[in-house]
Amino acid sequence: MDLTPILDFLNNSIYPLQGIVAIQGVFLVILILRRVAQKRFASPAAAAAFQNEVRELLTARKFDDVAQLCDSPPYWSKAVPQLILVALQHRDRPLVKLRALLADKFSTDVLADLEYRMAWINTIVKTAPMLGLQGTVLGMISAFAKISSRQKSGIDPSALAEDISFALWTTAIGLAIAIPLVLCGNAIQVRIGKLQDSVEQQIGEFLETLDMVLSGGRKR
Question: Which parts of the chain span the membrane according to its record (predicted)?
Fold first, then answer.
């Protein structure tokens, strides 16, 4: 049975599949970076300015104004203002329970989405080299198939070189896709960690101020 047509079809499918995987990886990296940037403040100064404004309104017990500020266009998409809105809606709860509620809300609404998308990047990092390895195997199978079918008539070295070149190129492309995605994935994890630390710090400060306003400094 001549497997050449099947091998040719499989060989021709490797490059398009690698292209699709690469495009998907780039798309996910851009999407996650934009998502993280959307959820955090552009700079510590911007975060501090927002916190100061919230603190002034809280001290004056203007809870509706705080909610309006958090729901305004510059802030509505960011994690901290979203969590502050939740805290204001449940400010009658004890501080410990309110802190746990906000932590769960942040984990569910923000971190879970980022981790889900990061899982797809990790899948692509593993898939790209496997596609390259598949191309290597198919290239070597094609080369040996040509050797087997042309033992009597002689083998054209250029035909073997083409298959071997294909085998090596698919491996190289697979690694070229995976390595940058590994670096990007690590960079994204650092950004997610910074986002988490920033949110925890800002929400902690907000809850302390809220607790002082509601209880007059007494522990609730």
Answer: 14-33, 127-147, 167-188
Confidence of residue 150 (pLDDT cuts 50, 70, 90): low
**What crossing angle do the helices spanning 79-89 and 95-106 adopt, rounded to 10°?**
140
25 near 124, Cβ under 8 Å?
yes
Strand, helix or coil at 169? helix
Residues of the domain holding 71: 4-214
Tens of pLDDT, residue by residue over 168-208, are: 999 999 999 999 999 999 999 999 999 999 999 999 999 99
Q: What is the pTM of this model?
A: 0.83
Residue 86, domain member (yes or no): yes
The CA distance from 1 to 97, in Å, is: 71
Contact 147, 160 (CB under 8 A): yes
In a domain, 219, yes or no: no
Largest Cα–Cα distance of the chain, in whole Å? 97
